[in-house]
Amino acid sequence: MVKTITDLQGPSGRLEALLNTGADDAPFSAVVAHPHPLFGGTMHNKVVYHAMKAIAAFGIPVLRFNFRGTGLSEGTHDHGIGEVDDVRAAVDYMDREYSKPILFCGFSFGSYTGLRATCGDPRIVGQIALGLPVSAAGRAYTYDFLPSCTAPKLFISGDNDEFCSITALDTILQTAPQPWNRVIIPSADHFFQGITTNPTSQLGVMQSMINDWLIHTFHLTKATA
Known about the structure:
By secondary structure, the protein is of the alpha/beta class.
């Protein structure tokens, strides 16, 4: 069941959010963060939606939210600074509501801000970074905080990602403490769509990689209807 959340308060006011409620006996809860709002990113983004579905398939309650100034969320865009606190507000909300260990998943701008917000948080037991950016729209993303990310981590990118080459991603991951997994999806761009020579969407492959990692890392089983 999907619920509209009306009481998620961030530092700049109410944050628009949707909650997939999950199963009562779920071992975890989860938060998913969307890509850059100034370039059309919202919690309804296709990558965010597919990531949510992959996690929710295990009966895990999943919260998606809009960053400040996006959709119906109050406040104004803060160029990745205040948005870190928005992620923390979402994590706090799930902690209050479920009192379960939390998985974090973010796409692009959402993966960067979310890792910053959740690295070193003892409530976070796993982190998924989709399309981790290095350079986009004239902005460079740096990851000096990554050594504090001690929870199990999954990094998924396309081999044709416009905002982070495989070489750049591998350089970043040199500072990431184990355990982590890196998955490069062939014929995929930053949005896990196809490329000119193979236009088939790779969103399903991305979902499968999330599923496999959750099963292998946390020994989860799919929820039954």
